[in-house]
Amino acid sequence: MQYPTFTKEHKSLMSKHLSEDIFNKLNTLNTSSFFTLEQAINSGIKNPDSGIGVYAGDEESYKVFEDLFDPIIEEYHGFAKDDKHQSNLDANDLIAPNPDVKGKYIISTRIRVGRNLKNIPLGPAISDEQRLEVEKLVSKELSNFENDLSGTYYPLDGMSEKDKNTLIEDHFLFKTGDRFLESAGLNKDWPKGRGIYHNDEKTFLVWINEEDQLRIISMQNGGNIKEVFQRLCKAIQKLEENMSFSFNEHLGYITSCPTNLGTAMRASVHIKLPNLAQNMKEFEKITNKYYLQIRGIHGEHSQSEDGIFDISNKRRLGVTEVQCVQDMYDGVVALIKKEQEF
Ligand code: ADP
Ligand code: DAR
Known about the structure:
The chain is an alpha+beta fold.
């Protein structure tokens, strides 16, 4: 591969930090999963509008290609190469009484983490056989879940379009991989090995082999953020009884996209803020202060509609899971207070 030609359209941190010297140093290397620099940066080259533009194929990628990953992680997360990540999944440490008991603002709450099994390559480098093995192992573990976490696994392979669209409309299922995931190699052999588990109440879900091998999700209508977090912590603890996730003391939980490293947690509410929607300057003053991200309600890259927004924590690495949810909670309290002042 030749040094890529970056145009002024290329905005990603990868295009910013991949100097020709670093390219020449890394271009001849590969990890023990035979993952190469070319595979890692393909998404950012093919999609100039990428924000990050690089994916890891395994935990080792973060070491082998550290000359590229480290400056990206430092700039995106404000996290230096010698910093240590700490985890805290004790929901008792979260201070979060329901901020919207009357249900005037918060439509629903969702908290998710990404996880990948130790010693198995991440999505961009996993083989078709390994992906099927992950599906078999995780869905079998989930079949043993009981009581409020008991439910059913639905493989995507063979699922009717009608069922798939219903699950997507209910915000329960991931969409077929977008162009970023496609060029990162995350859609290989789609839809084999992919699927969704959800409990009977549809408040606990696990996506298998989407962007990460597991997306463990707790969600429900309303603003009882603490109850959503408690259910997620309980489910993660149960899964960890019989499986080990890829984790190290520097980067925390290992994920295919560097943006999700650390806690791999996104805690979000879908919330009605029609007044703030007309005052984005005020809106963004608050989201900046509380390290929040604004998305549309139909997934990443979607636009907000009718004054309804997806508001979530922006920080993932160098903060604990409790802090991620506290960031979101404290920001939502401030947003509701400001919304009421108009
Ligand atoms: P991620 O899976 O990384 O959290 P997305 O923004 O793509 O990011 O969300 C995935 C799906 O979850 C989408 O269908 C989205 O509508 C849904 N979702 C996210 N947050 C909430 C929420 N608070 N309530 C209901 N659905 C949500
Ligand atoms: N589109 C890629 C990924 C950014 C973060 N979102 C994830 N991981 N789903 C980019 O580089 O912009």
